[in-house]
Structure formats: structure tokens, C-alpha cells
Amino acid sequence: MLSALLLFACVAPVFGQSVLIEAESFDQRGGWKLDTQFIREMGSPYLLAHGLGTPVADATAKVAFPETGEYKVFVRTKDWVARWNAPGAPGRFQLLVNDKPLGETFGAQGAKWAWQAGGTVQIDAKEVELKLHDLTGFDGRCDAIFFTKEDATPPNESAILPAWRSRLLGLKEKPTEKSGYDLVVVGGGYAGMGAALSAARMGCKVALIQDRPVLGGNGSSEVRVWAMGNIRRGKFPRVGEIIEEFSDHAKKSPGTYEEFGDAKKEAVVRAEPNIDLFLNHHAYQVDMDGEKKIAGVYAFDTRTSEQKRFTGKLYVDCTGHGTIGFLAGADFDMAEKGRMGMSNMWAWDEADKPREFPATPWALDLTMKDFPYPRDHHGQWFWESGFDKDAIGDAEGIRDWNLRAVYGAFNAMKNKDGADKHAPAYLTWVAYVGGPRESRLLQGDIVLNQDDIISKRDFSDGCVPSTWSIDLHYPKKQFAEKFPDNPFISIAVHDQRVDRNFGYPVPYRCFYSRNIDNLFMAGRCISVDHEALGTVRVMKTCGMMGEVVGKAASICATYDCTPREVYERYWPEMDTLLKLPGKAHRADLNDEIEIPDDIPALAGPLGPPTGLDPNKLDGTVVDDAEAERIGNWNGGTGLKGYVGYGYLYAGGDSGGAVRFAIEAPESGVYDVRFAYQPHENRGKTVPVMVETKNDRLEVKINQQKDPPIEGGFISLGELQLDKGEVVTIVVATAGAGGTVHADAVQLVPTKK
Q1: Per-residue confidence (pLDDT) for residue 270, from 0 to 100
Q2: Which of the residues 260, 495, 569, 584 could staple to 221 if both were Cys, CB 3.0 to 4.6 A apart?
Q3: How much of the chain, in percent, has pLDDT values that exceed 90?
Q4: How far apart are CA 161 and CA 299, in angstroms?
Q5: CA torsion, ordered 203, 209, 212, 218, to nearest 10 deg
Q6: What is the signed CA dihedral for 33, 37, 43, 44, rounded to 10 degrees?
Q7: pLDDT digits (tens, 9 = 90+) for 112-155
Q8: What is the number of other CB atoms lying within 10 angstroms of the CB of residue 544?
């Protein structure tokens, strides 16, 4: 029901008889979106008319007034392109009272959030219907509407729920208490979900607070960054099994709405009886018990403004920006220069007939040469801006600049020098929720750096495998010339020295605050420096951090200890928990842990195979990962159908060779096989030598042809072998006539 405020002079004499309506509380939002990203900047959620150039359906609300009569009207809004002196005011909208529009058009003035006067209106009945009527489809925005009989403009405060708003909204002076939690998780991305699920399954009572209507963060349908980072490998190959239960399998980034499985994520969380899920709740304030302990976290419902206070033994900051740590006074760092930016990805398609797109004089003035062509009908991660801008205090400005870039690019495609090739083109999706990468980094007992990762510094508490390269983003120079102050296309610079298979084990001591005794952190705000952030920040890796934190929280709750003491006093128990399957569970901290029957098979130190599982193929198989390399060989995964984790390839006549050794399990006759993936650049005369204690075979293979045996194998010949006898198979590059490919070898017993 709409939270409209009825206020009489005796309650708020400054405003007399006044009515305040928060736009987010409209009972029918029509096509308007609830935007909660910038509450810390401007004080409130707001409604956004994100129609991609087509006006959205009206948002409507029934509002009760204390009495009839003439009221002055104010609407808190802004002209979102005015800060750049851009012409056109794209965010225009009207306010209708009982279907009659006010004379003033809103969203057409003011570079900052402010109350725009809307004139006066005669209210003839105590209940009226309000409508927000979008005029453009280009991101008009409305925070609140204020009716008053007094000669006063409402305060233009950017504080969250200031006293005057709370009074007008009729909110309780004291928030609703939500207590009794072992762990309060703030942030519902991969890290927050991992922490909540892991802790709940270990018997903790958990509150999971998320300020959006969906879970997943950057990995949700709102942002659509596909989940990267390898899981289930390294020292603790069970870590990652929880993440695998809800992770997306999008084929692109951005993918489709359906691929990100918002409903599946929510269902997995709601299936846990130990989790209380609070979607659409924004955490904004922290109570402290002294200087080193969090006593409570305040959050309000972004739809009704109802306030809640969450209390627990432990807290975990999974906000990405380190918000809870910052509010609690936790030590943090933020790189002064070279920070990565925010992406707003987008997608387009082609209809079977021409489509119109409005001119966008207020967008960035772009031609087709000013941006990379959005191939495959999507604008990818590199539509990124805000480098070294204020990622926390001006996130809305960064997002809006990205929108101007996207609309400017599509305008070039539709109405300028790309028009002749894009008549049927139309926008299908533009992310209005930004995907940020870097801001505050909360500091723990270890601040992990690039040298630690590259040198594989061995920390005794290493537990989360980071397999992404050190991937740092910078403005791409060729597209930065026209807008040097805020380029909107980035380039990724990769340091490939990270172990992409086993992974670098990130230490547990990066996952708790060094100066706030009951604060964990998981996600991209953990204790790393700028360079190390480049490898740990991808979704699945962040999710595994959450899994580790959840198990540590159960130890803290059991022994009434701090996160630091888990490492100092209880690491053997932590080691045991990290080896448990992700589905292991107990209802209470004092119960025995149960292992269900449907757990995944234990992965090896390199994780589950990304290709064909050698253990499921006939006979005995040795993958290229176990082979001896001579010379320079590259690893690849681009040609699908490979065995294990990938394959090896090297140039013809490069002097390289790969040596496989495979042992016969029993005495008998075996077909000796070799696996490769065909390609037009492969050699036609690849030399392969097979040697045993009694036999030697030499074969030349045309690797441009499809291998004839299932699994990508070709027979090298049949041999009589004794039990335990070793067959050596050498694949060389000399005289190969092209690139040489080596994937696996196989022994299959024959029926002779």
C-alpha cells in the first residue's frame, strides 16, 4: 500500500497540512524502474523512466489528503544532462493529478537534485490519483512529490531519511529490531550469497540484506556480467560447490535475461531455513560497541521507507564498495590513480522492417569511428568510464555519462553515418544498473599484492583459488581523444603469470578487518592492493570468498571468538570445514553435520574437467596436463571437444615435442590412441612415435582431418603389453607441415 504522508499542523508546524509521497512507494510503477544505486549520494531511491527512447507506461498511486483546497506542488528531480550543458533535457515528464497534467514539465531544469516548483493544484476530494507520465523514454527521474498549503519549499537534503521526511511519512521513531543472528550479510552478489548459504548450512542464523529486488549483483540480469573464475580446485577443491549451485552459464557478456537465472538464485537462498532474506533493503548506518565492534546495522525498505535494525554476533561486508566497513571505521585503502571504472553494457537487434530512433542531441556527439562497433549485437564490458572519478560520491554521474555514450553511439548507427546500414536496428537492453569495479579496499591482517600472487607466496591459510589473470582496465587511447576527461571505452591489460589451473590460494587473513573485531569482508572490497584486485574481483572467485567466510563465521559463533582467532586458534577445525561438500549441513551449531547423498564427485587440484572427463572415457587415459613438454608449447581451449582441461599446440619445425607415458593396467592387447582437435592450420604430416620395451611404431597424422574415433582419438596401432608396462608416445614438430596439436593418449584393451 502507498506510504503517503498525512501530516497536520500540530505534528509539523513548519509545513502545516502537507503531503509527501515518495515516488518509490507508488503502488503501480508502470514502466518506471526503481533505482537504488545512488542513495548515499542523493538520499533516496527514485523512479527512473528507462525506456530506451520510447516513453514508459505511467506510474500510478492513490493518495489521501487531509483536506481539500489549493496546494502548492513540488517535485524532486533534475535535468540529468544539465551538468554537461547538454541541450534537450531528455528526462522530461509530467505529473498528472486525477488525469489532469500540471502546467509545469519536470526533469528539464537543474543539474543537481532539487525541488522543482510545479505551481498550484486544486484538490476537490480527499483521495486523488497521481500519475508520473514519461515524455521521452530517456531516463527521466523522480524522487518525491510534495503538496503543501504553506508558503515553504521542502528542505533539499541529501541525508538518508532526514527527520522531516520520517515525520511526514509517519515512520516509527524506533526501527523494527531484527535480532538473534549469528551473521548479518550486507550485499547480495556472489560473495554475499556464498557467505549466507555457507554459514546457514553450518548452522548459523543469517540475515542477508540486498538493496536490489534480485540477487547476484554484477552477475544478475540487471548488469549481466557472466560469471568468471575457476572453482573447485587447489588446496580445497570442495570450495566452489555452493557457487556452482546458482552460477549462471551465459554464453555472452552481456547475455540474455533468462541466462542469469534471478529466480533460481532467490530459490536457492530461500530454500535455506536459516536465512532471512531482505531484498530491497538499503543498509546505511552502523552502531558501534566501542571503537572495534559493530553492534548493529540499520537498513530501510526502499519501497516503503520502513527502517530495521539488524543485530548479530558477526557481520560481513559484501557491498563491493566496503560501505559497512567504512561506516564502522575499518581501515581501508583506495588507489589515488589508475582505478578501474564502471560499465553499463547494452544490446541491440534487427527487426524485419525499419525502426525509428529519436535524435539524441544531449548524448555524446559520436560518429561510427568514435567507438568499437558492437559486434554480435552487444556492447561489452569495455563500455566503461569513470576512471579516477569519484566512484562513490558521483556514481550517478558516471552511470549517466555511460548512458550518454551508449545513446550517442546508437544515434550514430541510426541517424548519422551508420544510418544506411542500420535501418532495422533497435535497442533491446541498456543496463541502467552500473557494474563498478574498484573503490574502497578494506584492510585485513594481510594486504595481498601482485608479487605475492606471481611468486606464489605460500600462506598457510591460502584457501580461495584465484585463476583469473591480473586484469586491469585503462582508457583505450584511440577512443579517448574526443573525450579525454572521461573516456568511455576501456582496454584490459592482462598479466598472465597467474596460475590459471590450480589457482593462487588467496589467504583467509584477507577476509576480515584488521581493526574491527567482528567484521568479515568478501568480494571486491577484500584486503588486496590495486594490482591484486585485478585477479580476485571476478564473480566465482568472490563467491568462494563468501563460502570461506560463512564457514569461519560458524566457528566464531560456536566458540565466541573473533575472525582473527579462527586463524590463530582454530585453523585445524577450519581446515576440516573447508574440506566438506558444499551441500553438507546442520540445522543448528550444536548438531552433527550431515552429508547428503547427492554431493558432486570430489574434484582434483585442477578442478573438474572443462572438457571430456578422462575418467569417463574407455580404457586408460593420460591428459596433456600430465605430459612432459620439450620446447615452447601453448595451452588452448578454443577448439571444443578436448580432453580434460585443454590442449597443447606449437608451431611446425619449432623444435618442440610432447612426451606421454601411459601404463597398461593388465596384460593383454591394447589399441594405442592419440587425441587431437582438427583445424585448417594444423600439420598434415605430424610425426608421432610409440615405443615400448619390445616395439617401436612411427606414424604421421594429418591433423586437418577429423579424428575417426569418438572423443577425438586416432589409432596408432595395437600392441601386446604386460601388466605395468609403460608405453611412451612422443609427438614432435619436425616436418609436421603446420601447427602441431597434442591433447591426450589412451590405451583401450581389444577383444583379441
Answers
A1: 98
A2: 260
A3: 93
A4: 11
A5: -60
A6: 20
A7: 999 999 999 999 999 999 999 999 999 999 999 999 999 888 99
A8: 33
φ and ψ of 196, to 5 deg = -65, -45
The partner residues of 286 in beta bridges, in order of sequence, read 297
CA angle 288, 294, 297 (to 5 degrees): 90
Provide the greatest CA pair distance for the chain: 106
Reduced to 3 states (helix: H, G, I; strand: E, B; else coil), residue 530 is: helix
Q: Which residue in 637, 581, 649 sits closest to 610, CA to CA?
A: 637
Select from 298, 328, 323 the least CA-distant residue to 392. Answer: 323
Cell numbers representing residue 488 in the block? 568511455
CA gyration radius for the chain? 30
Q: How far apart are CA 226 and CA 217, in angstroms?
A: 11
- Condensed to tens digits (0 to 9), the pLDDT of residues 354-373 reads 999 999 999 999 999 999 99
| pLDDT recorded at residue 369 | 97
Cis? peptide before 749, omega within 30° of 0: no
Q: Nearest 5°: CA angle at 527, between 526 and 530?
A: 95
Question: Would strands 127-134 and 93-97 be described as parallel, antiparallel, or unpaired?
Answer: antiparallel
* Pairwise CA distance, residues 438 & 36, whole Å: 19
Strand partners, 114: 77
The residue type of 688 is V
Measure the CA–CA gap between 44 and 142, rounded to whole angstroms.
10
CA dihedral for 690, 696, 702, 706, sign (positive or negative) = negative
Residues 6 or more apart in contact with residue 50 via CB below 8 angstroms: 32, 33, 56, 137, 139, 430, 432
Distance CA(319)–CA(188), nearest Å, equals 8
Compute the distance between CA of residue 223 and CA of residue 218 in angstroms, rounded to an integer: 5
Contacts with 535 (C-beta within 8 Å, 6 or more apart), sequence order: 453, 466, 468, 469, 470, 471, 498, 504, 541
User: What's the mean pLDDT in 375-403?
Assistant: 97
**Surface-to-core class of residue 355, CB atoms within 10 Å of its CB (0-12 exposed, 13-18 middle, 19+ buried):** middle
pLDDT band at 12 (very low <50, low <70, confident <90, very high): very low
Give every CB contact of residue 186 below 8 A, 6+ residues apart in sequence: 192, 209, 283, 297, 299, 315, 316, 317, 318, 319, 323, 324
Q: Which residues contact 642 (CB under 8 A, 6 or more apart)?
A: 611, 612, 675, 677, 712, 743
pLDDT in tens, 164-215: 999 999 999 899 999 999 999 999 999 999 999 999 999 999 999 999 999 9
On whether the CB atoms of residues 251 and 380 are closer than 8 A, the answer is no
DSSP 17-28: SEEEEEGGG-SB
Mean pLDDT across the stretch 57-71? 96
Residues with Cβ within 8 Å of 375's Cβ and at least 6 positions away in sequence, in order, are none
